[in-house]
Amino acid sequence: MIQVYTGNGKGKSTAAFGLVLRAVGAGLKVYILQFAKKGCFSEIRALKQFKNVKICQFGSACFIKGKPTDKDIKLARQGLAKIKEIINNNKYNVVVLDEINNILNLGILKPKEIKDALKLARSRKEFILTGRNAPREIIEFADLVSEIKEIKHYYRKGQKAREGIEF
Fold this sequence. Notes:
Low-confidence stretches: none
Strand order of the largest sheet: 3-2-4-5-1-6
Oligomer: single chain
Distance between the termini: 28 Å
């Protein structure tokens, strides 16, 4: 199955990590690929405590701002290769592609590349794709799509990101 969490609201990755927690509790093996992110965020520190969760980051900074660099493109392509490797090894039950929608929206990877990689394994694994601006092609391809809409956000009043809440 393919699940997509998209929209302009806060909580897409948080929703995916909630599902990861549920999967771990059920004894499933999880692989998380974070695109366009690099750093040891609170959720990463917490999830590293579980032996059946593997996390790999394919980003050079917290997020891509402006035009993607050659390094951003190279890291995203490495992430795509890792997706294919994970699909072929049958070791993991749940695969999270965190912020992949942003990578697709920026044109770094193409929706067809992701669809081609996932379509053969969608009956054997659960795939969770997060990030703003999920392309229409991915939305149509998915089995479940949730849009998280911002109605009000304290960032607009100048509140800075807080450890344990936003990262």
